Amino acid sequence: MPIESATLVDDAPMTPAALNEMVARDFEDYAACHVTEATTTHLTMEADGTRLRTRPGGTISGPEQAALVDLAAFLLINARLGRPTLMALTSSLQVNYLSRPRPGRLHTHAKMAKFGKSLCVVLAELRDNAGTLAATATVTYSVPPAAHRPDPRREDDTTGGTTE
Fold it and tell me: Is residue 2 part of a domain?
């Protein structure tokens, strides 16, 4: 099923390199994270779990797991928009913790479920280095309205805006 949206999307998705640069510049707390693949519908991110907070017993903490799936969703939405959109905000985050991930390489896979005019829903999975599913998440983001640009599909949209 295609993902439709009235939200304006730039011509090409942000590349993994551009997303990693944005993380390094704007999200210093996530230096352990690295995007390895990004399209308009999927994103894969790796994290060095040895650099994340752990709970007693060596388990990656729940807040760290939630932060990883949230960051992956945020980056996927930015990739889809084709430009940094720092004001895309989490409006809902539901995480199901399924197993105890140990420090080591962690893999987060995010998939666009719905890309709407103002809300985007992303499904994410967090796996440990052995491929064991540690957590699943449904993340909803509120995306700010893009500056209006004329829609080339509409002949009557010549002003680039509405008349009052």
Answer: no
Q: In the structure encoding, which two tokens stand for residue 87, read together?
A: 């004001």
Handedness of CA 122, 126, 60, 46 (dihedral sign): negative
Helices and strands, number each (H, E), in the chain: 2, 8
Query: Does the pTM exceed 0.85?
Result: no
Residue 52 in any domain: the answer is yes
Q: What string of pLDDT tens digits covers the 164 residues of the chain?
A: 344 443 445 567 899 999 999 999 999 999 999 999 999 999 999 999 999 999 988 899 999 999 999 999 999 999 999 999 999 999 999 999 999 998 899 999 999 999 998 999 999 999 999 999 999 999 999 998 864 344 444 444 443 343 33
Q: Which of 3, 78, 84, 67 is nearest to 43 (CA)?
A: 78
**CATH code assigned at 48:** 3.10.129.10
